Amino acid sequence: MGATYSRGFTDAELQQIITASEQLYQIYANYCDMVLVNGNLELAFSELCHAVAKLDSEPCWIPSSWIE
Question: Which domain of life is it from (predicted)?
């Protein structure tokens, strides 16, 4: 059995998560304005707050089919 990390994931589980994440990124990256990494909680929260504030204050492009 692989090593267990503080979050309770084995090496195999972490590899599956990484592989799935890479596949999702390849498929959907063109729909995303940013990637939020779940690593340092304070940094991730700060980046999320900044992104929300930016969405609230700056115009952004979305496909017209999303608003119909």
Answer: Eukaryota
Residue-range definition of the domain harbouring residue 46 = 34-68
**At residue 4, what are phi and psi to the nearest 5 degrees?**
-105, 135
- Do 8 and 24 share a domain, yes or no? yes
Torsion, CA 39, CA 41, CA 46, CA 52, rounded to 10: 80
Is the entire prediction scored with pTM above 0.70? no
Shared-domain flag, residues 28 and 38: no
Judged against a pLDDT cut of 50, whether residue 64 lies above it is answered with: yes
How many beta carbons lie within 10 A of that of residue 10, not counting itself?
13
User: Higher confidence at residue 39 or residue 45?
Assistant: 45
The whole-angstrom separation of Cα 12 and Cα 22 is 15
